[in-house]
């Protein structure tokens, strides 16, 4: 399968004097690049250190809402796919979400990917008055929400009675352009996420800067889960790894940029995220990035997602990635 490249454009932190100008420039740059897809986060609130790491201030620089932003990006682009990394399926009513995603799919002429997850940030659930169940119940609710969304996209009328959701004579019209429905990619790396991928998924988005050896083992396990779920093959899935991308022609410049990001966010340097960002993220020269990406493509990863936060890093890293890294995988 052809190697695909996406870019995760930040919606939080300091995006410059005008957020719309930043998004418009990002859309133009990526539409004219060899990048295949644009991805955005889906959060109502983020921890303060995430905002500060991206040179913002809490409350002032919280994320833009994902699906209205994707609707805007749909009108700014004609070619690139548009996805969320990822939408907490437990945070919104699935019938409403099905309608919203279908609408953005129509506006984009069939270019939407629904990135799906169970949700992890309890604060944004509490502030919306939405229950934040215990972990296993939350994943159970996620799966039920995905079932509801798929039914509404593919049926004229839906009657559904589940543990968490009940629908009577429900419908989504007009239907999405994508057939049989917009693809659903699950984000995460737990056993529960892998089981959801095997049952419902068109793609799987691993953890940011995931260790290649762990990704290899997870792919091996996913093959077994697919077989148990009805014999689907790996060729029916896209396997995606997001990598924090801070790229410069001078390795020390790139490393300093990454360390400043971590310092602003006061991330614990003993935690795995910090070490894996330096060891497995795309922090360094274009040549370094090519070598890192090959570690993933050699084990079956077919989609690389460049996480180009913060905004001050976005365009300089994208230029080197598009001009010097992606051509090596043509």
Quick one: CATH class? Answer: Alpha Beta
Strand order of the largest sheet: 1-2-3-5-8-9-10-12
Distance between the termini: 12 Å
Write down the oligomeric state. single chain
SS element count, helices: 12
- Work out the number of β strands: 12
Q: Which short descriptors sum up this protein?
A:
330 residues, 12 helices, TIM Barrel, 17% strand, alpha/beta, two-stranded antiparallel sheet
Descriptive report:
- The protein has 330 residues and is of the alpha/beta class.
- Helices cover 45% and strands 17% of the residues.
- It contains twelve helices and twelve strands.
- The strands form two sheets. The protein has an eight-stranded parallel barrel, surrounded by seven helices. A two-stranded antiparallel sheet has the order 6-7.
- The longest helix has 20 residues, at 135-154.
- The protein is globular.
- It starts with a strand and ends in a 5-residue tail after the last helix.
């Amino acid at each position: 399968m052809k190697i695909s490249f996406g870019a995760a454009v930040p919606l939080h932190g300091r995006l410059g004097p005008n957020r719309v100008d930043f998004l418009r420039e990002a859309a133009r740059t990526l539409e004219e690049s060899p990048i295949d897809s644009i991805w955005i986060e889906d959060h109502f609130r983020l921890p303060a250190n995430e905002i500060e790491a991206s040179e913002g201030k809490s409350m002032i620089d919280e994320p833009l809402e994902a699906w209205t932003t994707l609707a805007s990006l749909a009108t700014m682009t004609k070619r690139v796919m548009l996805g969320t990394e990822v939408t907490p399926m437990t945070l919104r009513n699935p019938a409403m979400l099905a309608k919203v995603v279908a609408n953005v799919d129509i506006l984009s002429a069939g270019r939407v990917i629904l990135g799906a997850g169970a949700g992890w940030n309890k604060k944004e659930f509490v502030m919306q008055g939405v229950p934040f169940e215990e972990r296993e119940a939350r994943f159970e609710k996620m799966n039920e929400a995905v079932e509801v969304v798929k039914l509404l996209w593919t049926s004229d009328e839906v009657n559904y009675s589940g543990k968490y959701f009940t629908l009577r004579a429900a419908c989504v019209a007009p239907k999405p352009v994508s057939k049989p429905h917009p693809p659903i990619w699950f984000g995460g790396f737990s056993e529960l996420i892998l089981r959801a991928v095997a049952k419902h998924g068109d793609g799987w988005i691993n953890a940011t800067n995931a260790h290649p050896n762990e990704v290899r083992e997870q792919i091996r396990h996913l093959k077994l889960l697919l077989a148990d779920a009805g014999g689907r093959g790996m060729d029916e899935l896209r396997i995606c790894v997001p990598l924090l991308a801070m790229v410069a022609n001078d390795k020390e410049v790139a490393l300093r940029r990454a360390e400043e990001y971590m310092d602003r966010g006061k991330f614990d340097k003993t935690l795995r995220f910090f070490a894996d960002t330096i060891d497995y993220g795309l922090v360094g020269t274009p040549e370094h990035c090519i070598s890192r990406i090959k570690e993933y493509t050699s084990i079956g990863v077919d989609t690389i997602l460049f996480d180009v936060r913060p905004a001050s890093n976005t365009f300089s890293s994208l230029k080197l990635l598009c001009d010097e890294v992606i051509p090596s995988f043509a």
